[in-house]
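Continuing from the previous page of notes. For each protein in this section, the sequence appears first, followed by its structure tokens. Read the first protein now.
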Amino acid sequence: MTVTVETFNAYSGNFEDSPEAVLLKGTFLSSAEEIVSGYLGFDPKAQEYADVTLSGTGGRKLYLPSHQVTALHSLAVDGTVRESGSYSIHGDHICSTDRHSVFAAGTDNILISYSAGWTAQDMPSVITLSILRVATLMLSETGGNIGLTGKSFADNSRTFINYSNYRKYLQPLDALRIIRF
């Protein structure tokens, strides 16, 4: 898990530590991570991706379906294995170091294995904060709260807030988001 229950307790101000509460908080954190990963379009945790099939565009750049690419293990274009030293890594894509070498255009013609993602310590704070916000909203829904709360004002008006809509808490992640067509 990217965020610990201890960090979640400090952020939410809820320090209940019964076994049931800790289990429930872990569930909220796991669910929040899934929501954030789904919104981003990739899992931000450091991991290895083996035998990923991609389509070439005929250009020198190949965009990968994740961010923070840390290592390129193998690459084959149209069945021909390429040397790993002939490509450089640039965050979310690799680029041919030879100006004449391109990723041949084609459908599912590239097979690649690589490592990408951030460790828990290096995770961008915007991702960590989004996970904490979504998990805290889930926590606020417990105890009979159905994800809706209200605030009364002096003029007898009342405003309702829907806690189940996570969109505004996910919007800060837009710069890291991978959108596929």
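Done with the first. The second protein uses the same format. Note its length before scrolling.
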Amino acid sequence: MSLTLGKSFDRCYNLRLSFLDGFYNIGVFFNKRSPFLLFRIDPDFIEGHEHKKAVKINMFKNLEASKFCETFLNLHSYRKQSLDILNQFESIKSDYHLDVNFLLNETITLTKVQSEDKVFYDNLILYGFFLTSFPSEFVFLVAERQSLIKKLRKKIVRTTAIQIATSPALELLKEFYEEAQEHSKIQIEKRFPTDEVIKLNDLEKDI
């Protein structure tokens, strides 16, 4: 997956993740002073390996656009004067602890800043997930960039993700997603009893 970088990206963190009978070498490119980042993906498989016919790679700059995130993950957003968080990974949804597992959870600290009585960290945090039913055919990697703007005394948190999956794993993801959507509709349509008391005289007035 070719990638042309300009002056905006001056740092890189590399991972080597197993997939099927080979590997994907993933580079996470970012800037020390910016929340933006990009992925570079290089497959490392034996010549003629059949992985090429069924593997799809997708990048998500907005995690809310991902079926995986919408189905399995709790995301957190928050904004105040000194903090701006958008779609930060919070947890795996409790209903899916047996269906989704961590592949990795790593933090790279770039800078430590002390302002008055508070300490702030400029970080790159990586979360990797796999589907329990397809441990070697599905990878979802979330890169969280925590960037400090010293002049504004503000921390900005942004996330980007990449998904690598075979067709069978994507079919399973689709089933989970559709099932979650249907369950959500049922919950919305469900009517709960109220504490309101309807008197017989009120009904007679409406007749």
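What the second structure shows: DSSP finds three helices and ten strands in the chain. Residues 55-188 form one domain. We return to this in next week's lecture.
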